[in-house]
């Protein structure tokens, strides 16, 4: 005979109770809209010398 299925015991944790509604509605919709980025930061950049930036990297595969 096959072994009996174990009974699933009810959860001992209390359900979560929310005191406030979500500000922008539910977050589980399939087509969620993204908010525009409002806090962008401009930083100075330097040109990269590609011949020296990866000179220390040794790949694990052959590129030929």
TrEMBL record:
Cellular component GO terms held in the UniProt record: chromosome; nucleus
Regions of compositional bias (Basic residues) in chain numbering: 1-10
Gene Ontology terms: biological process: cellular response to ionizing radiation; DNA damage checkpoint signaling; recombinational repair
Biased composition (Polar residues): 30-43, 51-64
Chain spans, region Disordered: 1-64
Pfam family, one: RHINO
Protein name: RHNO1 isoform 10
Source organism: Pongo abelii (Sumatran orangutan)
């Amino acid at each position: 005979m096959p072994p009996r299925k174990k009974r699933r015991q009810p959860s001992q944790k209390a359900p979560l109770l929310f005191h406030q509604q979500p500000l922008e509605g539910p977050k589980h919709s399939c087509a969620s809209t993204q908010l525009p980025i409002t806090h962008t930061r401009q930083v100075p950049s330097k040109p990269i010398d590609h011949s020296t930036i990866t000179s220390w990297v040794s790949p694990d595969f052959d590129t030929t």
